[in-house]
Amino acid sequence: MVPSEDAAPQLDVDQILADPGVRIVVCCGAGGVGKTTTAAALALRAAEQHGRRTVVLTIDPARRLAQSLGLTELDNTPRQVKGIDVEASGGELHAMMLDMKRTFDDVVLQHTDPAKAAEIFANPFYQAMSSTFAGTQEYMAMEKLGQLHARGEWDLIVVDTPPSRSALDFLDAPARLSRFLDGRMLRLLLAPARSGGRSMFSIVTASFGMFSKVVQKVLGAQLLTDLSGFVAALDSMFGGFRQRAEQTYRILQARETAFLLVAAPEPDAVREAAYFAGRLREERMPLAGLVLNRVHRPAVPELDAEQSRAAAERLAELGGHDATVDVLRAHAALTRQAVREQQVAARFTEAFPAVPAVSVTAQPADVHDVDGLRTIGAAISRP
Questions:
Q1: For the chain: N or C, fewer Cβ within 10 A?
Q2: How far apart are CA 94 and CA 78, in angstroms?
């Protein structure tokens, strides 16, 4: 027999989406588990069924979200999704995808004068950092989420994060930024600007001795000059960015935020979900539940795999029942898979028995349109 899948409390997603006190839903989990689809489905359901003015923000560089919502593209500005059924509810759905360079540019424009902004934009180190530097995406994701929240025009913000270890970087962004800003190397690079224009190289050399000469030789004097100029130009705005990032971090800890873990019944995905659940608990962030995607369920659960296999063998010996034999064997294989999946999922529920969960049956095809998102939303929100 297939074991019960109701060991964990049942997750009531509709209650979360309808609650006016919940303003942010963060979907997180490993890659390839349907997280982007889940985020889009939840945002669509919040707009259509609960009348909320909703925006879904994807930080995943893939463009599946735009495709599933019927949009040709997403960018750094929320775009309204047309053609959805909100006449009765009065809700709205908007979607956007984080553009980290544009977000960084917007921060610079908002917090410096035009001349200083032009100086920053022309700096080669800024051009590289704002586009490709490790960690910039997570910093800018925090900035964008903070901006959306501060605008106050959305009833609900649904965030689709990168695969979970990257999503942990998303959570760690304020602390990592603080360590960077308070680091000894950065203070040394800022020293010329704060010391009346003394040569950067004289100060760095005095502090590092022979090491600075090695750094200059390896990285090049021009790179160090670009870096020093970049840091000095941004010095006046770094503190404000750090403060805003830390404020967003506190928002993620507040009751207005609900984290939903998304996983598939596979060992790696469930392990990632458990790892993330532990981190959320450590950081005192509100974990609302687990969405277990792509679960397989046999049509006749009372017929177990061994009974089905034995029946198939008997009919095969009799002959003349090829179609029935194929069906019984397929049922046996599906039942064994369902048992394995529930054993894997039990690793999470045993470690976190109080976390509510809901299972979503595997779909016959990939979701690529609004109708498919409605189907997923209804499956996640079933009572």
A1: C
A2: 6
**Residue 259: closest CA among 19, 24, 9:** 24
Predicted model pTM: 0.82
Which among 104, 141, 173 is positioned nearest to 26, based on CA atoms? 141
- Amino acid at the residue 248: T
**Local structure of 311: helix, strand or coil:** helix
What gap in Å lies between CA 150 and CA 159, rounded to an integer? Answer: 15
Burial label, 352 (beta-carbon count in 10 A; 0-12, 13-18, 19+): buried
For 102, the 3-state DSSP assignment is: helix
CA 170 to chain centre: 8
**Which SS3 state, helix, strand or coil, does residue 85 take?**
coil
> Residue 266: which of 32, 3, 14 has the closest Cα?
32
Distance CA 226, CA 383 (A): 58
Q: Residue 299: which of 290, 308, 291 has the closest Cα? A: 308
223 — phi, psi (to 5°)?
Answer: -65, -45
Decide if 295 contacts 360 (C-beta within 8 A).
yes
CA distance 294 to 290: 13
Displacement of CA 60 from its chain's centroid (Å)? 7
Q: Are strands 24-29 and 92-97 parallel, antiparallel or unpaired?
A: unpaired
Q: Write out pLDDT tens, residues 169-227.
A: 777 776 676 666 555 545 555 555 444 444 444 444 444 444 445 444 444 555 556 66
d(C-alpha 169, C-alpha 147), whole Å: 19
CA nearest to 195, candidates 113, 187, 234: 187
